Amino acid sequence: METRIRVVVAKPGLDGHDRGIKVVARALRDAGIEVVYTGLHQTPEQIVETAIQEDADAVGLSVLSGAHLTLFRRVLDLLRERGADDIVVFGGGIIPDADIAELAALGVARIFTPGASTADIVDWVRGNVPAQLAET
């Protein structure tokens, strides 16, 4: 058996800009991390359901719409309600520095802002997301 990190990446809300999340998803995949991309316009409920069904170790959210506080909070609340608060939540997008501390206080493990390299994101996931044992 090997350990392999499984990450669900998602675009919550009405934001239709998906280039960045696709680049991150590909970088994670190319680094040997299992990635499930949920697509555009996902509700927090859909994202959490996917994370639980896919037995994810982490959820990565990309938010460019300005609704980051609401969307991250809802995902975290739903994970707690479902007893899945061991799933690491991280994300990125257009998020003001002033909001990053508030997101951290809510339980978001890391926010990557524009300009973050895919290598930094991959390294952070590898170093901060505990993998589960996966059957090979």
Salient structural properties:
136 residues; alpha/beta; two-stranded antiparallel sheet; 7 strands; 42% helix; globular
The helical percent reads 40-55%
What is the H-and-E element order? EEHEHEHEHEHE
Spatial order of strands in the largest sheet: 3-2-4-5-6
Largest sheet: 5 strands, parallel
Strand content: 15-25%
* First and last CA, distance: 6 Å
* Structural class based on helices, strands and sheet pairing: alpha/beta
Number of strands: 7
SS element count, helices: 5
User: What is the typical, i.e. mean, pLDDT?
Assistant: 94
Unreliable segments of 5+ consecutive residues = none
Radius of gyration: 14 Å
Shape: globular
Protein described:
With 136 residues, this protein is α/β, with parallel strands linked by helices. Helix content is 42%, strand content 22%. The strands form two sheets. A five-stranded parallel sheet has the order 3-2-4-5-6, sandwiched between helices. Strands 1-7 form a two-stranded antiparallel ribbon. Helix 1 packs across helix 5. The protein is globular, with a radius of gyration of 14 Å.
